[in-house]
Amino acid sequence: MSRSDIFILMIIIPLTFFQSVRGKNCVCDLKNSDPAFPEHKLTKVETTSRQCIERITSERITELDRLLLGLQQRIKQLEENVVVLEKEDDTNLYGAVSLRIIELEFAEIQDLLKKLNETIGNYHHLNAQAATQLEDMKDTMGELEEFDNMQMIKKDRENQRVKRGLEECKNKLKATLPPPTVLPGRCGLGQMVSVAGPRTSSLTAYSTSYSYGAWGRDVKPARGDENKYWLVVLSNSNVYGHFVRQYGTLSTLLLGIGPKDTYISGSNPTTNTIQGSNMVVYANALYYNCYNTYSVCQFNMTTRAVSTVALPSDTGYNNKFPFAHLGTTYSYTDMDFTTDESGVYVIYATTSNFGNVIITKVETSNPPVLGQTWTTSLHKKTATNTFMVCGVLYATRYLDKETEQIFYSYDTETKKERFDLKINIKKMKTNIEYLNYDPRDRLLYIYSDAYILTYELVFQ
Ligand SMILES: *[C@@H]1O[C@H](CO)[C@@H](O)[C@H](O)[C@H]1NC(C)=O
Ligand SMILES: *[C@@H]1O[C@H](CO)[C@@H](O)[C@H](O)[C@H]1NC(C)=O
Question: What is the pLDDT of residue 229?
Fold first, then answer.
């Protein structure tokens, strides 16, 4: 309490003074004629309100949002698959298999609905509880105010307000780093706050044969190819691949029905075949690190022609600057191709940049051309993968078997980088060999020890 508060209290307290003269000393007896202030009641109200606030957090509200989003996505998927089923109705086996998938999806939707119902149930419960507590607090506060001859509570509240103001002011001063993401005008997404999922997870038709691979959808599909999925496994030594497998839908990919393989070459590895797992498909062309060079390969899946463009000659390749963590090196992941709303990028490291990450835009013309380049101070071997959203590069690191963490971001617009992000990804398997963002559905596509998974990015 400030000096002036004490002064006010002293003059407001209704006091009775007894003055007497005992010898030469002057003595004052002080008696407070009011009952003692029931401070314990005030403390109790404060505790209850703090508990109330702790229980109703934005965390819980996000949980509800997540469930709703998940549900929305599953229902959309189900609708699409029902349409496929209707078309396939003439071939019995195929239809029966699709039906089984729809059954499975339906079960998952029911499961989600159950969770949603539980969450909402919890909410009602919390709300009711909070309402009762608020009523109680109101009553107590009313009682307390009657005692408030001394204006204790009023002053206390004022003090609290001033303190809060001071804290806010301090925090504002401290928060010199702005959030790393996009201005709303750029692609309408807020700050990334969490990663939910996995939304889908499955082995492929290859089962556990290949621990290195990549998958996803064409980020800029031709008309009619919107639902197609591609899958590439590194079938030689976990390093080399030489063909792209495509499926008409997610269901057929999960079941391994009707794949179409497009070969880059008959042998593996050889000139211009695939090296390392971090590739992408854009406008029916596969972008990847060409075998045994520091070049970018563009494989046109229509014509089967390969065009290349070389990165700087001191670019790491053949396992010089791979993704890694203390326990593992992700072999031959020197180049990471990523996609965002604006197209294709290649992430790599050079000797002249001390093994730190460089971002280069890949213009998807034929042949491909290197575009704008950004230099970062993220050491490539400390990251386990990267992806881009709306011109912001994010990097992950390995925390433990269950958790991968998005810890780093680089905004290509402001050139600001941050190392203090702490957005966790709940893993199913220990290692993530491939990770990319699909701007069409805003999901992360992951290949993790032979499993293919999707995760949902949650934005503020
Ligand atoms: C939702 O939860 C309530 C209890 O919280 C339960 O009585 C009800 O049957 C549930 N509804 C569904 C559709 O699961
Ligand atoms: C691939 O080939 C087709 C047919 O020639 C062409 O239309 C398309 O532009 C090519 N794609 C790329 C990325 O070069």
Answer: 95
Can you give the pLDDT at residue 326? Answer: 87
SS3 at position 146: helix
The predicted structure's pLDDT at residue 48: 77
Tell which phi-psi region holds residue 91, choosing left (phi > 0), alpha (psi between -120 and 50) or beta.
Answer: beta
CATH architecture entry for 176-459? 6 Propeller (2.120)
Decide: 402 and 373 in contact? Cβ < 8 Å.
no
Rounded alpha-carbon distances, angstroms, from residue 429 to 402, 426, 445 = 7, 9, 14
pLDDT score at 353? 95
Pocket test for ligand 1, best of 116, 117, 118, 122 (most atoms within 8 A of CB): 117
CA 290 to chain centre: 30
| Protein residue whose Cα sits closest to atom 5 of ligand 2 | 303
Element (H, E) at 391: none
Q: Residue ranges of the alpha helices (H) in 183-335?
A: 184-187, 250-255
Residue extents of the structural domains in the chain? 3-32, 39-146, 176-459
CA 302 to ligand 2 center in whole angstroms: 7
User: Could you write out the DSSP letters of every residue in 231-247?
Assistant: EEE-TBTTTEE-EEEEE
CA distance 143 to 449: 64
Q: Which ligand is nearest to the CA of 120?
A: 1
Predicted TM-score (pTM) of the model is 0.63
- Asked whether the beta carbons of 400 and 391 are under 8 A apart, the reply is no
Q: Which residues of the chain have pLDDT under 50?
A: 1-23, 173-185
Residue 395 exposure: Cα atoms within 13 Å on the Cβ side: 28
Cβ–Cβ < 8 Å for 276, 263: no
**Closest by alpha carbon to 284, among 343, 225, 243?**
225
Q: Whose CA is nearest to atom 1 of ligand 1?
A: 117
C-alpha 46 chain-centroid distance: 35
pLDDT at 126: 73
- Residue 16 has a pLDDT of 41
| Phi, psi values for residue 148, rounded to 5° | -85, 45
